[in-house]
Amino acid sequence: MEITDSKGNSITCLNDWAKVFDTPKKRLHWKIGRSAYSIADFIMNKHGEEKIMQLVSSILSEQVILESGIPELEIRFDAYGHGREHDLGIYGKTSSGKTIFIGVEAKVDESFNETVADVYLKAKAKELAGISTNLPSRIEDLITLNFKNIDSKVFELRYQLLYATAGTVATDADIYILLMIVFKTELYDETIGTKNYQDYSMFLKAVDAKPREYDDEHVTVHQLSIGEKSLHAIYMYQ
Question: Is the pTM of this model over 0.85?
């Protein structure tokens, strides 16, 4: 798999990957033991590409080839501004010729951020105060996209999961995969990690995701529909 930054510059080692985070906004995220560093180290030094390829091939029941990967890949999923930034976006194909997009979300014990309610209320307060913002409209569209049955409980879910799905299926591919990789580094907190998985499970239940059998206690696989598109959701511990 060829790995480049968003400008096409080749990434062949951790130092190259680190340059993607050499901005005032992102510099603090590059830390040994945290998610940004962990996914880079996994791919560069711990046979991550091979492990992902074997995992996805097993789930799809056909050989998968990973062709290219872009760290911090932004995918626009609506007309409201900045899109979803995948920790790693991977493009590939199957042996039968189908195209694949894998949106990788790396975690140690970082949360899925605020609830939908918290984000929505803050955005509506700005709107009512006369501050221009598209965020309420974006959230409403994401709720409509993700959920067939909408009730007040969707506001208790974690907002990041709503746009993670949208930013995965917004690409041009035949097969869509949202891959959550949890790295149990020396900074991992088991209590927080367990809460994160509970939040993830609540989201899957709300979108009526269907579990799929997979013979690995460190991996769970679900299939769900986002809009008119089918999405494989994989949660794995590394």
Answer: yes
